[in-house]
Amino acid sequence: MASILVAYGTGEGQTAKIAERIVAALQTRGHATDGVDVGARLGGAFDVGDYDAVLVGASIHGGRHQSAVRRFVETHRDALSTRPTGFFQVCLTAASPDEERQAEAAGYVDEFVETTEWRPDRIAIFGGALRYSSYGFLKRALLKRVARDIVGDTDTTEDVEYTDWDEVDRFAADFAAFVEERVRIDATKTKPQEADGD
Ligand SMILES: Cc1cc2nc3c(=O)[nH]c(=O)nc-3n(C[C@H](O)[C@H](O)[C@H](O)COP(=O)(O)O)c2cc1C
């Protein structure tokens, strides 16, 4: 069993919903997993060093990730670089069948990795959601245009979820397997040293 932190930022709740799904999947596999909204929590209130592995999640608004997530990664970069980590990004461009849009979504990740100088071991990009029912007139009109350009949808009468939950489940399972393997390898490495000390 490993202890895993899922630290995320969210603007309208979709990244939180995906993080919750991943937390539940990791807990089902027997891992002690905490989900933390780093935008809502006061900085420094928890210790990344307490965890065997860390997953970081962020969504894209106006081409940018949450600044709280960026701060979290920059603050804890050293701890992140010494344990298994993963990054998942949530955005609309990921839901587009268009290759250029897919490249745009991947470009957000590349920029994040480059500027934070953190190299996550596993990366996933998920389609997000548009919650038209919570938008005012102007925002709904703006997002209608964005959705039309990116995914070709123009219906704003209902909220739309573009997240592929099977993809989320596969990512959670893959990350769990990766962490389990690393924990197993670390345990075999430390065993002979313990024996030497006897
Ligand atoms: C105001 C606004 C701006 C957005 N800008 C982008 C964008 O630049 N690129 C993109 O791919 N998705 C964009 N999206 C889509 C969001 O990434 C998507 O709604 C996602 O589910 C948000 O996750 P969250 O609810 O965790 O914040 C935008 C959404 C909103 C509401």
TrEMBL record:
In which domain of life is the source organism classified?
Answer: Archaea
Instruction: Name the chain's protein.
Output: Menaquinone-dependent protoporphyrinogen oxidase
GO terms in the biological process aspect are: heme biosynthetic process
Its signal peptide is none
**PANTHER family associated with the record:** PROTOPORPHYRINOGEN IX DEHYDROGENASE [MENAQUINONE] (PTHR38030), PROTOPORPHYRINOGEN IX DEHYDROGENASE [QUINONE] (PTHR38030:SF2)
Q: Name one Pfam family in it.
A: Flavodoxin_5
Please name the source species.
Halogranum rubrum
All copies of the Flavodoxin-like domain together span 4-170
Alphabetized GO MF terms? FMN binding; menaquinone-dependent protoporphyrinogen oxidase activity
Q: Where are the transmembrane segments?
A: none
